[in-house]
User: What shape does this take?
Amino acid sequence: MKSPHLSKLNTESRQEYGALLLLDQLMRYELPRQERDNLRVTVAQLEEKVAELKKGFFHSDEQDQELNYEKDELSEAREALSEVEKEMEENEHCRLNLALIETDDEGLEPLLKFMEERGTLTVSEGNFYLPTAKGEEVYQHLVEQLEAYVVHFDVFAYVDLEEGAFGDPKTDLLEGDQWSDLRVAVAEHKGIDPYRVVFLALMSADKFYENPDWKFDLSLGTLFDEMEQIVLDQLCVADLSYKDEDEEEQVSGEDVIRDIIEQGNSLAKERRREQQETEEKEQTEAAPDEQVITQSYYW
Assistant: This one.
């Protein structure tokens, strides 16, 4: 059932979500670029250390150990630098150049101007749009919201209302009509903007970028039409009300959603605990046992 009490997505919200999407895109290049710059400094410092430790003809065992250690550190830093540079190359398409905006993506100019006016974007000497310090702060807040969404809302994406069960994407097929998406209803009960919850859900799954024409749709103002429809088509709290045949009384949607949230929060904590235990177990198994030191291979 549609949620008649929910209004359509307004222009200001579309503008905000569009700005966040562009900021996320730009940071996919900017973050590895910053890491590359830091690693270049680290590599240069380690090269100086190694060069200094190589001086002289005679070295003590301690000096040789230190030299070998710094060589290993340098090798790891160079490898990390190579990986980051590769990531930058792969994410080159995430950059936005002023010249290209004026030709290929001119429809984005109003949104980019809005971001500049808000102090989240600037233009570099090479005419590339770059997030400012304020822009990076906004992006960090977005990352925190995405993490909070996964913790507090993801578990309510698949709920079997008849059985009172929660679907697990890792183990269940999640096919059929028994599953209801209650994220909007949970947001409604908690007083959180349901559009923001669905926006975070789509961002978390990289759904916007699956559309190769997402920038064009964003410039037309139609990119979030599907998101709007998703919100309007979801179950709301009032839809969860039902008649208890045993007690012969009507159970309110508020009572239902409170019970669902309590069960969902408990399950989410359990899933996080199991995931943490699995990760810790994998780390333990990956580490070699000290007994390997005692093994003899040739006699």
